[in-house]
């Protein structure tokens, strides 16, 4: 699994509104993916802060791709749980969304996601996830 395959997956597997986020694959390895969420005024609220909904969608998307790198192929899955903690606002910067598989079983996959500001490297959001494999 490489960045080219995951970039194609972003175009082919996800809903148009997720594609509209403009996510780009920065890096990938077995069980881990980093996506870039470009700063876009359409995703911001007052003061240039990126809205939490965009960050959560980027986190969920990154985790799906991280699961695919672990499994080695596309497999139907659904988000069972996405627990998000917003640590500080992301203002006027791209976000780097790093998702890691913690444990992949036969029917459930557990993961964690760290979203950092691309310019200053500060963590702005942490999430834990559980996915059910179909």
Fold topology:
Layout: H1 3-13, H2 16-19, E1 24-29, E2 32-37, H3 52-71, E3 77-86, E4 95-104, E5 108-117, E6 123-133
Antiparallel strand pairs: 1-2, 2-4, 3-6, 4-5, 5-6
Write down the CATH class. Alpha Beta
Separation of termini? 21 Å
What number of domains?
1
Shape: globular
Mean pLDDT: 95
CATH architecture: Roll
Instruction: State the secondary-structure class.
Output: alpha+beta
Radius of gyration: 14 Å
Key descriptive features of the protein:
globular, Thiol Ester Dehydrase, Chain A, alpha+beta, 134 residues, 3 helices
Task: Give an account of the 3D structure.
The chain has 134 residues and is of the alpha+beta class. The protein has a single domain (3-133), classed as Hotdog Thioesterase (Thiol Ester Dehydrase, Chain A). 26% of the residues lie in helices and 40% in strands. It has a six-stranded antiparallel beta sheet, with helices on one face. It is globular and about 45 Å long. The two termini are 21 Å apart. The model has no long low-confidence stretch (mean pLDDT 95).
């Amino acid at each position: 699994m490489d960045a080219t395959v995951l970039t194609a997956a972003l175009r082919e597997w996800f809903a148009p509104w997720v594609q509209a986020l403009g996510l780009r694959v920065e890096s990938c390895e077995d069980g881990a993916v980093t996506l870039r969420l470009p700063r876009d005024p359409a995703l911001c609220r007052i003061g240039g802060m990126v809205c939490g909904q965009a960050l959560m969608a980027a986190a969920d998307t990154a985790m799906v791709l991280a699961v695919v790198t672990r499994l080695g192929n596309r497999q139907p899955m659904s988000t069972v749980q996405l627990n998000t903690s917003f640590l500080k606002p992301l203002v006027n910067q791209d976000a780097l969304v790093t998702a890691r598989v913690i444990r992949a079983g036969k029917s459930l996959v557990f993961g964690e996601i760290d979203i950092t500001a691309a310019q200053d490297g500060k963590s702005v959001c942490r999430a834990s996830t559980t996915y059910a494999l179909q």
